[in-house]
Amino acid sequence: MPSRATRDRVLVLLPWLALPVMAGLLLDVRASLPARIAVHFGVDGRPDRWVSPEVFVATSLGLLVLLLGVF
After folding, report:
1. pLDDT of residue 46
2. Burial zone of 64 (CB within 10 Å; 0-12 exposed, 13-18 middle, 19+ buried)
3. Quick one: pLDDT at residue 30?
4. Cα separations (Å) of 33 from 38, 42, 53?
5. Which of 8, 34, 67, 71 is least buried, going by the fewest C-beta atoms within 10 A?
6. Over the range 17-55, which residues count as b (16 or more CB within 10 Å of their CB) and which as e?
7. What confidence score (pLDDT) does residue 35 get?
8. Which has the higher per-residue pLDDT, 38 or 1?
9. 3-class secondary structure for 20-50?
10. Cβ proximity of 38 and 47 under 8 Å
């Protein structure tokens, strides 16, 4: 049975493995994304803010890094 320190290291590193996996998946589907992606919706349910696929990918990865750093 692994020691507690080993288990703790694995539990800390495991979420960070999501970063390259997510980057690979986003870069893989980037070409199939539409030219404009709705990222904010009004109260009526209609999109009112749009971004390019590049901004969407960069923002998604940036948010993941921020969340991993905070947690």
Report:
1. 96
2. middle
3. 87
4. 11, 22, 6
5. 71
6. eeeeeeeeebeeeeeeeeeeeeeeeeeeeeeeeeeebee
7. 94
8. 38
9. HHHHHHHHHHHHHCCCCEEEEECCCCCEEEE
10. yes
- Across the chain, mean pLDDT equals 91
d(Cα 44, Cα 57) in Å, to the nearest integer? 26
* Res. 18 pLDDT band, cuts 50 70 90: confident
Contact indicator for 19, 68 with CB cutoff of 8 Å: yes
Give the 3-state secondary structure of residue 17. Answer: coil
Q: Which of 59, 64, 66 is nearest to 19 (CA)?
A: 64
